[in-house]
Write a structure and sequence with these properties.
Rossmann fold, 19 strands, GMP Synthetase, Chain A, domain 3, 11-stranded mixed β-sheet, 450 residues
Length: 450
């Protein structure tokens, strides 16, 4: 088994090299070395690079995008004087935000459900994805990841049985547990595979990681076999938690069960990787790709809304994008030795986990993905009232069709059970709660579910 595992790792490393050569060119290893050198550099070097990239982006936006050409006419040139970019503006001005230097065929369409429950469609370019991946490679190594080494993925996918998904998982040396549909039997089976397969890292939604750990902890208590397994832990170097808030009790249970550190990774579909936790527990900002501001009278002492300027997406520049999260900055230097600036606090991100009558857990992200490209829906919120009843609130627009309603209800019932009643409420607006953070999926069942 060790020989077979080693051979698979060598194969996967070669496959990763071929993939990166195809995507980024023959010099991708040099690009990764340059990325590493920059992100390991002294703070003044990092900030000088960031300032240079920002000036170049602002010039590009002013010269090639209709929206910023008009907006920046009277601007002083200081980033802080530019009005924040709102999600509403992106929806209304999407084409005017796109650069005229890119043809429609050169744009890569992307979408997100958005933490406010309102679908958002936007464009990115190929170089953005290449640069984004280089930063992810750099930061994930903090948690022990490396090309071709075995990794367990607890993530949501709508394509788990798709042959392309299975092929990609094979050459990347990954095993997947679908975070959109967690069952106790699947989680126990995955744990058995872990001890045969020995993954070096786990990448997971925090809530999926927590549910996985809870099932395994209960199994350890109930079974002598699992108790014995506690004495021979897997070779995990680290766990990367991303896409949701990592609550303290999520982290504590996972670290005690798997005997390794959980590294918090903060990012979004719109702008990529924003910050990553180091071994000292500090969240370091990705200054190579982003400028991060906190909209607060004093961002070092008083939390405020996070504004993101994306430095490497020239197809559709995001300048001072109000991402919908709340945070606080720090000007300290981390004991880990890395001099990237620090995000001291991150507040307000969470996603509900739904439960079915059979006991399966359905990640809230499954439902938000159903709304990504539905043009007739301007805003949504799905609430699980009981095991038998859900409420779906919809703000619709002129492109709404009755067939869309039938499609959405069908997908919800496919996930939660055909006996579930979905009450659709058409509303004029879905107001923000006092916290300022509207959850797009809410489960009103026992809080132990999430």
């Amino acid at each position: 088994m060790p020989i077979r595992r080693s051979a698979k790792t060598l194969f996967s490393k070669a496959a990763w090299r071929a993939y990166n050569t195809y995507r980024k060119g023959v010099h991708f290893r040099q690009q990764l070395r340059q990325t590493t050198a920059l992100l390991d550099a002294p703070r003044e070097t990092i900030l000088a690079y960031q300032a240079e990239r920002l000036a170049k982006l602002l010039r590009h936006a002013r010269e090639t995008t209709p929206f910023y050409r008009e907006l920046l006419k009277a601007a002083s040139g200081a980033l802080a004087d530019i009005p924040p970019l709102e999600k509403k503006t992106i929806r209304e001005q999407r084409e005017r935000l796109c650069s005229e230097a890119f043809s429609p065929n050169e744009r890569i369409k992307n979408a997100t459900g958005g933490s406010t429950g309102t679908p958002l469609t936007f464009y990115q370019d190929r170089d953005y994805w290449n640069q984004r991946n280089l930063s992810v490679y750099y930061f994930d190594r903090w948690a022990g990841w490396d090309f071709g080494e075995p990794q367990l993925i607890l993530w949501g996918t709508l394509e788990n049985s798709n042959w392309k998904h299975r092929l990609n998982a094979f050459w990347r040396n990954q095993q997947w547990l679908n975070g959109f549909h967690l069952t106790e039997s699947a989680m126990r089976e995955t744990y058995e595979k872990m001890h045969r397969w020995q993954p070096h890292t786990i990448l997971a939604y925090p809530s999926a990681l927590y549910q996985f750990a809870k099932v395994l902890a209960r199994s350890h208590e109930e079974s002598e076999q699992y108790q014995a397994r506690q004495e021979s832990p897997t070779r995990l170097k680290g766990i990367i938690a991303s896409a949701e808030m990592l609550h303290p009790h999520y982290r504590a249970l996972a670290e005690s069960l798997f005997h390794t550190k959980v590294y918090n990774r903060y990012g979004s579909r719109e702008v990529g990787l924003i910050a990553m936790e180091c071994a000292e527990g500090q969240m370091h900002l990705n200054c190579r790709e982003l400028c991060v501001e906190v909209d607060s009278p004093n961002p070092w002492t008083e939390p405020g809304e996070i504004l993101i300027t994306q430095l490497n997406n020239y197809a559709m520049p995001f300048i001072r994008y109000r991402i919908g999260d709340i945070g606080r900055l720090s000007d300290e230097v981390c004991p880990c030795g890395n001099q990237l600036p620090i995000l001291a606090e991150l507040l307000g991100r969470s996603t509900a986990t739904f439960r079915t009558k059979s006991g399966a857990l359905i990640h809230g992200g499954y439902f938000t993905q159903q709304f990504y490209h539905l043009t007739g829906v301007s805003q949504f919120q799905l609430i699980q009232e009981t095991l038998e009843r859900c409420t779906l609130k919809l703000v619709i627009n002129a492109q709404w069709q009755e067939a869309t309603r039938q499609h959405i209800v069908q997908r919800i019932r496919e996930a939660l059970g055909t006996e579930v009643t979905v009450n659709v409420e058409f509303v004029a607006d879905i107001p923000l709660p006092a916290s300022g953070k509207r959850e797009f999926t809410i489960s009103r069942l026992s809080t132990d579910v999430t």
